[in-house]
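Suppose you are handed only these lines of text.
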Amino acid sequence: MHKELALIGCGNMGSAIVKGIVGAGLIDACDIVVSDVSEAASSRLAGELGCAGTCDNVEAVRDAAMVIIAVKPQYLDDVVRGLADTVAPDALVVSIAAGVTLARLEGLLGSERKIVRVMPNLPAMVLAGMSSLTPNAQVSAEECARVQELFESFGRAEVVPEHLIDAVIAASGSSPAYVCVFIEALADAAVAEGMPRAQAYTFAEQAVLGTAKYLLETGVHPAVLKDMVSSPAGTTIEAVSALESGGFRAAVIDAARAAAAKNRAM
Ligand SMILES: NC(=O)C1=CN([C@@H]2O[C@H](COP(=O)(O)OP(=O)(O)OC[C@H]3O[C@@H](n4cnc5c(N)ncnc54)[C@H](OP(=O)(O)O)[C@@H]3O)[C@@H](O)[C@H]2O)C=CC1
Ligand SMILES: O=C(O)[C@@H]1CCC=N1
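From them, the structure of the protein bound to NDP can be written out as follows.
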């Protein structure tokens, strides 16, 4: 039976991606099949979306126009090898695995296959994701635009050359984790100043959300917004000064570049 989309791996990212696509009405749920090694995971997602669910990856990809592979990188080789003979020759295969290059995917699937390497991030779960897309040479501009449209259903998506995916991991793929460390630290400070814990998270989270929203919507440079908040002899410049003394910028750069280096080494 022909279907528009097969998803392999119904975890955090796979679920967010397919929910975004169906929610935006880009692909009808009845044209989708989702597959996971765990029966509970595939039937939960299938039930939420009203699409077909299975534990049989091979049956899921048979006659699918597009296959999105969303399993952890350590399972990817086995999963892709197991599908290579069944995926339709003209199907678009999308991998979101960290550290898995187009060359490696072509080695597993065949270099004549249409493959797009995508690096999304977890805010896709609330339709605020940021994804990069890198097609191989077999993918046409129209096909790439279609994948971009699907990934824009849950946030922003931009095409980047493959060598920039390490930068994408540093800035957006992995960064929700270090932004959370920052939010936790802000909330800890508010708790230390006497605020109840739950209220502290609300204040810290809304401040981070609002700052990013302001920068994205206005195009204002972050340094300009920082200067707008920092009154002469005020509270904010005290905090900025303490951050600089503590090596905050260098710590963030080192952290993000560690993520990039790991992505290169995987
Ligand atoms: N999490 C993130 O922030 C981001 C993740 N990514 C990439 O997305 C991919 C998925 O990550 P994430 O969603 O977090 O992982 P999850 O563990 O949440 O989801 C992966 C799912 O795949 C299932 N699975 C494992 N083996 C198979 C198999 N052989 N066939 C079918 N399904 C299988 C897992 O089942 P079980 O749990 O039982 O093993 C799990 O349900 C990774 O490659 C990661 O690099 C990319 C950007 C951001
Ligand atoms: O660390 C990970 O495995 C994934 C890749 C990008 C974000 N998280």
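What can we learn from it? The mean pLDDT is 97. Residues 98, 169, 173-174 surround A1CAB (ligand 2) (CB under 6 Å).
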